[in-house]
Structure formats: structure tokens, C-alpha cells
Design brief:
It contains 6 helices and 2 strands. The chain has 127 residues and is mostly helical.
Length: 127
């Protein structure tokens, strides 16, 4: 009996918990533009490389510093939506009643976090 009640309660709670960067927002695209604007060019075949140090042919320590700078910069407020994310978030919400909760490990910088939330609200991915 308890299991049926719990299952029914969970089924009525149409909530999707998701990450923002790389799921709803195209962090990788924006980071690549930011890197190029700072004089870094990707290596040949970069499209198939996940590791940013490999992608730019720079030490891991340096790329870690650059990622932190990017994540705490104003650029984080201008990430484009990832592919069809806006379309499907809207569809899942309007047609099926799902709500979205976003979690992120983007940065501990509170201003960068606020920019990220503002962007998600602006693109209507969250309310």
C-alpha cells in the first residue's frame, strides 16, 4: 500500500531536474568564441576533443584557470540555447505539464550564478 501511494505521488510530480551548461545552454560554443577572442585557436580536429586542454594544445593547469575566468565573466550571461533545448522545454511544460529545476556547478561566484539564472529566465527555460 505504501509503495503504491509513493509511486502515485511521484507520477503526479512532473518535475525534471537538469544541469544548465551543456544541457540547456551551449557552454562549449560560447567558451570556444571566448577563447578565440583571447587569442587561443583550437587544434585541428578539435570538434572530436572533449578535453579543453587538448582542444587548444595548452596545459591542463592553464585551461583550468581560463575556464574559471570564463565562468565568472560577463560572457556567461550570453550563452545560446543548446540546439532544440528551448523547443523541447517549452513543449514538455505546455503539453505535458512538466516543470524544470536547474542545478549547476558553473561557479561559486554569485554574480556569475545570477547571470546564468537571468539567462535561463530570459530564454524562458525556467520561470
Amino acid at each position: 500500500m505504501h509503495t503504491q501511494f509513493t509511486r502515485k505521488k511521484v507520477m503526479n510530480n512532473k518535475r525534471i531536474i537538469t544541469d544548465a551548461d551543456g544541457v540547456l545552454l551551449d557552454w562549449e560554443y560560447a567558451f570556444n568564441i571566448w577563447m578565440q577572442s583571447h587569442g587561443f585557436e583550437p587544434v585541428e580536429g578539435y570538434q572530436f576533443m572533449y578535453d579543453m586542454a587538448e582542444r587548444y594544445g595548452i596545459p591542463k593547469k592553464q585551461v583550468k584557470v581560463l575556464i574559471k575566468q570564463f565562468n565568472e565573466s560577463a560572457a556567461i550571461g550570453f550563452l545560446p540555447a543548446l540546439r532544440d533545448a528551448m523547443y523541447y522545454v517549452k513543449r514538455l511544460h505546455e503539453e505535458h505539464g512538466f516543470t524544470f529545476e536547474v542545478v549547476t556547478s558553473l561557479s561559486t561566484d554569485r554574480y556569475a550564478q545570477k547571470l546564468n539564472v537571468c539567462l535561463l529566465v530570459q530564454t524562458k527555460m525556467i520561470t
